[in-house]
Amino acid sequence: MVKVLPFEEPIVQLKSKIEEIKDYTATAEVDMSTEIENLEERLRKLEIEIYENMEPWDRVQVARHPSRPTTSDYIQQIFTDFIELHGDRSYGDDAAIIGGIALLNGNPITVIGHQRGHDTKENIKRNFGMPHPEGYRKALRLMKQAEKFNRPIICLIDTKGAYPGKAAEERGQSEAIARNLVEMAGLKVPVISIVIGEGGSGGALALGVANHIHMLENSTYSVISPEGAASILWKDSSLSKQAAEAMKITAPDLKQMNIIDTIIKEIHGGAHKDLETQAQYMKEAIIQSLRELSKLSPTELVDARYNKFKQIGKYKENASN
Asked: Which of 26, 40, 99, 155 could form a disulfide with 193, with the two C-beta atoms 3.0–4.6 Å apart?
């Protein structure tokens, strides 16, 4: 059974009413086709009204939906001949990061992404999409391999953040993330990152130093979760809705601030409503990005990436007295 989000309840109730009337007309000798058509038109208008005017907290809930497609789901839909590669050649393999080589319209690429689970058992295996240092080192190994063989890199971001546990810190979590930031900045092949769910803190940024950054319409990208921000700012995590609004973590906000390049639209209700259609939207965005980036030389790719991040943010200088 698909989880119903609070803001979707009016839609679900109206759909239920329509189904009740249809069931009734199927057994009774009553023509209610006009009433059904009117209700279905009302439903279409209601869906447009709700889904096109979602609040930031609504988008946070959609980004966290348990049925939202994961990296592996998109890999199966967008690419062909995927070969998963494991391990960081230093400590071990991290199931919270998956990656390998695949074909996109017959051309080889490297694809890497955070991987969550669809149920409790898989989430435990994937550590709920929160990587340890070996996950980021595996990702960097695959990126350097892609650079060696001149393959574009596609990163899919979906994590609450890097795992904050004791073992992760002992194995160098901060250093692993910092190393990825430095090395990604200098990669001489096209790098494209897409936020497909939650993009949380440095754990997301470790796959986010890209030439082009895209976000799905209902994904989020932030330095901290709304609950964490509310706890710090107001000592009350129940104020997470207000925090989500203040933090500007949604795709429209980040696009307006020029932090991301493109918003990839989602069908009404979210990506989990139609995986195949959503994957097609993403594939079109990836192809368009590769078409643009293929025109740049290795040096131009590095310079463009550097300038992109250098220009993020605004500041004012006070006149000296």
From this structure: 155
Q: For residue 312, what are the CA distances in angstroms to 46, 92, 96, 171, 256? A: 37, 35, 29, 31, 11
| Each residue's pLDDT tens digit, 233-286 | 999 888 999 999 999 999 999 999 999 999 999 988 889 989 999 999 999 999
Report the alpha-carbon distance of residue 97 to residue 245 in Å, rounded.
Answer: 30
Residue 116, both tokens: 């969550």
Residues 131, 148: Cα–Cα separation, whole Å: 25
User: Cα–Cα distance between 102 and 77 in angstroms, integer?
Assistant: 12
List all residues 6 or more positions away from 287 whose beta carbon is below 8 Å from its beta carbon. 104, 105
Exposure letters 267-286 (e unless 16+ CB within 10 A, then b): eebbbbbbbeebbebbbebb
Alpha helices in 186-316 (DSSP H): 201-205, 226-234, 240-247, 251-256, 275-293, 298-310
Give which of 41, 39, 40, 21 is closest to 31, Cα–Cα. Answer: 21
Q: How many whole angstroms separate alpha carbon 194 and alpha carbon 204?
A: 10
pTM confidence score: 0.89
